[in-house]
Amino acid sequence: MEGIQHRMVNVNGITMHVAEKGQGPVILFLHGFPELWYTWRHQILALSSLGYRTIAPDLRGYGDTEAPPSITSYSCMHIVGDLVALVDSLGVDQVFLVAHDWGAIIGWYLCLFRPDRVKAFVCLSVPFMPRKPMKPVDSMRLFFGDDYYICRFQEPGKIEAEIAHYGTSNVLKRIISSRKPGPPCLPKDNAFGIEPDTPIALPPWFSEQDLSYYTNKFNKKGFTGALNYYRALDLNWELTAAWSGTQVKVAVKFIVGDLDSVYTTPGVKKYVESGGFKEDVPLLDEVVVMEGVGHFINQEKADEINSHILDFFKKF
Questions:
Q1: Rounded distance between C-alpha atoms, residue 106 and residue 99, angstroms
Q2: What's the average pLDDT block by block, 10 residues per block, for the chain (316 residues)?
Q3: 62 and which of 57, 58, 98, 284 could share a cystine (Cβ 3.0–4.6 Å)?
Q4: What is the number of alpha carbons within 13 Å of residue 101 lying toward its C-beta?
Q5: How far apart are CA 210 and CA 176, in angstroms?
Q6: pTM for the model
């Protein structure tokens, strides 16, 4: 991690931790759950050496960034507000955007609300999700049942207690190593499928040192801020009624692994492949489906993702 600078920035009423390296056009990286700025370590090192200024914050509620206590402080309006303030603080009008998982969801909101601030977007794992007539959590419960992970995350304190029971390190290890196709469900008797005397092997692209960094940060911060993104899903639905049916008018490259638990959730692959995605995102330049690759694609296939990012952004 040599040469990566860390600083704290005041944005939108909170203090945000930012990792930064390089000079040139800005690439803003947005991590997902349960991750940190650190998930982008390979991209930061590679792209900063190729003439880009790489910026990777810990999002609100994560890592060394402030975590307001109330669920309502984690709406898409708050998070996008944080990012607009961060971009303002960099002294630039526009950034290139790269985002994964929850970062991708926030990235879509940023493109929807403030397309003027995004030059182009490389989106990993989660395609655009247009607003539906039914509230999202009710819809998920109807389609996937009470054990669907997002439904299980709704009750404050409940899943946090289960994570504490199994241990942060074991839970992170289980989530990061999982290659089970979607929809992800967490049974109430053993949410993460962790057995006391059965070791969980880390994938070759995620070291014990990486796990230790994540574990220390989540032990210090807790998971509540991160989980509050899921708890604000219905609030996001309420706040975004005025954007129903709006297209995303930003140039996008979408990359996903064919084993990704999001991509393999019923309805997602069909939406991406059937033309619905292109209809909602008319400037969708390319969809790349990587064979044999799981959810944490920017770490599992770091070199390939770096090349995809570079090839796309060089067009602008």
A1: 8
A2: 93 98 98 98 98 98 98 98 98 98 98 98 98 96 97 97 96 95 92 89 97 98 98 98 97 98 96 97 98 98 98 98
A3: 58
A4: 22
A5: 11
A6: 0.98
Residues annotated catalytic, as ranges = 101, 230, 295
232: tokens are 């604000």
What span, in angstroms and rounded, lies between the C-alpha atoms of 136 and 291? 29
- Measured torsion, CA atoms of residues 200, 203, 209, 210, in degrees rounded to the nearest 10: -110
Distances (CA, A) of 183 to 1, 5, 115, 174: 35, 38, 31, 16
β-bridge partners, 257: 290
Question: 104 with 94: CB under 8 angstroms?
Answer: no
Look at strands 95-100 and 118-124 and give their pairing.
Answer: parallel
Phi, psi dihedral angles at 14 (to 5 degrees): -130, 165
Asked if 106 and 59 count as a contact pair (C-beta separation under 8 A), the reply is: yes
